[in-house]
């Protein structure tokens, strides 16, 4: 009979240990959508961030080139005032303004949507599980159970002299 009880205790301990491993596995699964591939996700995020940085640098270069072209167009229009009429100058300035506005719109659309590092993403402060705590020592019960006999609550009888220690 004792062997069966001992086997049941071991099986219960193994089940509790496996439950904890399963809870740990479940919490790790929620960490990312790739289910256990955080390195690949981090590399993909870094690649996306690098591409966004490259695109932002290209937009900055294009903006600088457009501003230089606008300045050159304005300078050309100012130096060629004798041969160009006022209407043509207005058309040149309008075209340069449209190019600058289009460049600003492109620059406004280039934003980074992915965090560059995983350290920038805040994590949950703790993981809440619903497992019961199992304490190795049970707490002491402060109230004693009352005796359930016929003499409960009555004073103890005195021992006969021959039964005294």
Automatic annotation (TrEMBL):
Region Disordered, annotated ranges: 144-165
Superkingdom of origin organism: Bacteria
Name used for this protein in its record: Uncharacterized protein
Organism whose genome encodes this protein: Sphingomonas kyeonggiensis
Lineage, opening ranks: Bacteria, Pseudomonadati, Pseudomonadota, Alphaproteobacteria, Sphingomonadales
């Amino acid at each position: 009979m004792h062997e069966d009880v001992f086997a049941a205790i071991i099986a219960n301990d193994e089940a509790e240990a496996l439950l904890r491993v399963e809870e740990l596995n479940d919490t790790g699964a929620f960490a990312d959508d790739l289910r256990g591939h955080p390195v690949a996700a981090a590399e993909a995020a870094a690649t996306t961030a690098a591409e966004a940085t490259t695109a932002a640098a290209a937009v900055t270069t294009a903006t600088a080139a457009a501003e230089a072209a606008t300045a050159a167009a304005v300078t050309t229009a100012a130096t060629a005032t004798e041969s160009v009429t006022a209407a043509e100058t207005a058309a040149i300035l309008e075209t340069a303004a449209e190019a600058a506005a289009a460049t600003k719109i492109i620059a406004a659309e280039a934003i980074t949507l992915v965090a560059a590092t995983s350290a920038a993403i805040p994590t949950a402060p703790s993981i809440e599980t619903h497992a019961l705590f199992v304490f190795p020592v049970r707490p002491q019960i402060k109230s004693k159970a009352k005796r359930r006999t016929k003499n409960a609550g009555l004073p103890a009888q005195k021992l006969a002299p021959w039964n005294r220690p």
